[in-house]
Amino acid sequence: MIVLRTLPALAAGLMLSSATVPAAAGMKAAPAKCTSGWVGNVQYSRHIANSQDKTVARVSGKGTDTTSWSMTYDYAAQVTVRATDNPDISLGRANINLKSISIETKAAQDTDMCMQQRMYRTVSGNFVSKSETRANGNGLDADVNIGVDTEGTYRVSVRLPEIKGVVSGSESGSFRGQCKAKEGASRTIADLPTTIDPVQFSSDGSDRVDPREPDRLTGSHSETLAGATDTLSWNLRRCGGALRLVDLKFEDMRFPTWGAWRKITEQTGTIDGNIVRITATVANDGPEEKLATLKLRETYKGDKWDGAKPDSTLDEGTLSVPAGEQRDITFEWDSSGYAWYDDGRPRLVQRIRAEVEDKGKKADEMTRNLKVVPKPVVLVHGLWSNWQAWEIWQNILTTSHSYDWKAFPVGEKPEHGRMRTGDEPGNFAPTNTIDENAAQLSRYVEYAQTNRNAWHVDLVAHSMGGLISRRYIHAAMPIYPDGKPQVGHLVMLGTPNRGSSCADLISIPLELAGKSMDALRELRPVSVLRFNQVNVNRKGVPFSILAGNPLPPVCRMLAMNDGVVAESSAIWTIEDHAVERTIHTSLTGTSQFSSFVKPRLAIGPGKQGAQGKLAALLPGGGGGRLFEFARACLEFLGLADPKDPDAGDFSKVAMLAPGQVMEIAIPVEDARNFGVTFVAANTVSATLADDKGTALGSNLAGNPEASQLFRGILVDRAITRATWKLTLRNEDKVERQVVLSTWSNAR
Fold first, then answer.
1. When comparing pLDDT for 11 and 252, which is higher?
2. CATH number at residue 318
3. Is the same domain home to 53 and 198?
4. In terms of domains, do 341 and 390 share one?
5. What angle do CA 247, 250, 253 make, to 5 degrees?
6. CA-to-CA distance for 190 and 331, rounded, in angstroms?
7. CA–CA distance from 659 to each of 218, 275, 291, 504, 656 (Å)?
8. Are residues 553 and 681 in the same domain?
9. Which one, out of 234, 415, 539, 714, has a CA that is 20 to 30 A from the CA of 16?
10. Which of 189, 211, 237 is the last residue in one of the domains?
11. Residues forming a β-bridge with 674
12. How confident is the model at residue 647 (pLDDT cuts 50, 70, 90)?
């Protein structure tokens, strides 16, 4: 039996009853004070872990004795508190378990001489002694005291009875190297009865009653002394119904093992898209079995912007709870979208309230915070680029949500995967194929998932990175048991989804010179056409594309473009697209993130369904029917299988020594217009002059246009047959390679 002593000043949470102070006319009487005893649960535990290692020299002076000792002690008590007809008295029943293990290992090593052999040898002995104590008791009377003072602070103490147990043990020994062999022995010590003394522990009296809930006490207190940690926690209530919520906990699965549930800490939270297991523990303090209804609600109370918004139900279920016992009910909740509000604002905390009902009437409730942070964003660079193209994106993500929104540029941690697409313009060294780079992307996605414990990621890809991402989704991306694809969204920026004619102009001269570069060759329109015929499965992943179109015809493109990719090539058959007057290398900027990328990643829970419908309209999401329709149109127009175009009117591969100036004669024919496209490091300058020496245009080192992947000079007027001169200057201290082609009659 336990006696609960409550000081009168706080008996009703510092409220006076209507019987004490008469209500003034027209005034509502104060609520009557609570006269019930406390009910609930108290848990106590003691944990001790000690160890010691010691090595000393043996008496012989030729060896050592090493002793290693370790001990663990774990005592746990669960005390159920029940009220009686007397408000000052409650009943307590404790279930207690104890397990203690002590292990001592001795290793002796010495040197001895065997007379027959007349030589020294090493001899040793090993001895292990183990002792284990086990004890338990169920339904034992326990004393609990709750004292509340006039200031609203309170103390919880518990006294647990002695329990009976047993001590068992074992000993073993082994020998090695003795002149005369010695055989070790092992023996088991029979169980011996023992008694575990009573335990008493209390909180430090610093906890305070919450004035909003004066009839509920929840808290914990720990103390560590001489290696022993004692912890007391409590969840107590008075003046409530028979049903009571004891606990509400959240778990998610540890990637990559589906079903490996782990506790979610409030500080870390979980990742948008993870499945969260919510477990509510319901106790029945009444004398008879109860059928309880448990409802989970999303609550906005206390939110800065949506505090007045009504709560919404997430799930509900029923469970039967026997008298005097408690039971768990578990829900699995999809957190997709809960890092954001539906208007795109960051949601920094999710508040979930559990309500338990008894015959349709709410008996108790409990609210817990759950932090849901955005999916990691894996950033996929394109041709002649590397992870540094995304250096500012972590700051972009942090300012858009919080530091918990993480960027993972592929290759930043090369041990987890590195794509090879030619690190910078003018580098014609061998590269990976799209398929090989997709395998590296796969490794990096898994690294991001492991690092963040995220089952789903978003992909943002620039240029060729979009083709690499499409290949990964088609060939390797998994669909998880929750039915959702690993990739939540693929957002492409300037991806040549039908190839780039710039790649034709530069790749073909390289191929003819025996210096083929896979990453460049696979961007040719004929190569991408074949790529599109194979990689049709989007597996339900929504695709989006931002195209740039600020430039007139370049690289023989007959349409507006971003300097590398024509608008029509980027958009391809992608329903969700937009166009901006932005050059190719600037599509990864802050402005494009805000206007195009973020609205497609910051999708709240109310818009998740719309995103799924979009995916169903796209190739792969709908069995590739849209792609087949588009392909049929191309075939009808005679464009489905173009023949390999030539490298242009004139092409050349040149090597420039440091500081070298090279003049190249350029033949031209009668044409509406004329252009030179070349790839070189930004330290190379080019100037074009006609047959009379008149300058027609230039692309100079140090200027913004020198940073473009494909550089060019356009003469946008009618020309006549002649021989012009292109002057190249290498302003670098190292040798540089230049690949160029000319073209005409673009329109």
1. 252
2. 2.60.40.10
3. yes
4. no
5. 145
6. 47
7. 78, 61, 88, 29, 8
8. no
9. 234
10. 237
11. 715, 744
12. low
Start-end of H helices in 14-110: none
Distance between CA 438 and CA 435 in Å, rounded? 5
Q: Do the beta carbons of residue 526 and residue 498 sit within 8 Å?
A: no
680 contacts 738 by C-beta, under 8 angstroms: yes
Q: Does the pLDDT of residue 362 top 60, yes or no?
A: yes
To which residue do tokens 């929840």 refer? 218
Angle at 150 between CA 144 and CA 152, to 5 degrees: 70
Q: pLDDT tens-digit profile of 410-466?
A: 999 999 999 999 988 888 999 999 999 999 999 999 999 999 999 999 999 999 999
Is the pLDDT at 565 greater than 50? The verdict is yes
- Phi-psi region for residue 474, left (φ > 0), alpha (ψ -120 to 50) or beta? alpha
- SS3 string, 491-513, reads EEECCCCCCCHHHHHHHHHHHHC
Question: Which of 30, 358, 359 shows the shortest CA–CA distance to 214?
Answer: 30
Distance CA 573, CA 589 (A): 25
Q: Is the peptide bond before 256 cis (omega within 30 degrees of 0)?
A: yes
Q: What secondary structure letter does DSSP report for 6?
A: -
Nearest to 461 by CA among 436, 496, 430: 496
Query: Which tokens is 270 given?
Result: 């979980």
Residue 276 has which token pair? 């969260």
- Please tell me whether residue 606 adopts helix, strand or coil conformation: helix
Q: Which helix (H) or strand (E) holds 689?
A: strand 684-689
Tell me how far apart the alpha carbons of residues 542 and 235 are, in angstroms, rounded to a whole number: 47
pTM of the model: 0.78
Q: Is residue 643 part of a domain?
A: no
Contact 59, 108 (CB under 8 A): no
Judging by DSSP bridges, how do beta strands 119-141 and 163-176 pair with one another?
Answer: antiparallel
- pLDDT over 90 (residue 296): yes
Cα–Cα distance measured from residue 676 to residue 714, given in angstroms and rounded to the nearest whole number: 7
Q: Give dist(CA 429, CA 382) in Å, integer.
A: 15
pLDDT above 60 for 583: yes
Nearest Cα residue to 355 out of 286, 282, 296, 298: 296
* Tens digits of residue pLDDT in 120-165: 788 888 999 999 999 999 999 999 988 888 888 999 999 999 999 9
* 248's tokens: 């509400």
pLDDT on residue 617: 39
Report the share of the chain in percent with pLDDT over 90.
67
**The one-letter amino acid at 203:** S
Domain count, the chain: 4
In the predicted structure, residue 59 carries a pLDDT above the cut 90: no
The pLDDT of residue 307: 64
Query: Domain for residue 534, yes or no?
Result: yes
Is pLDDT above 60 for 625?
no
Domain span at 309: 243-373
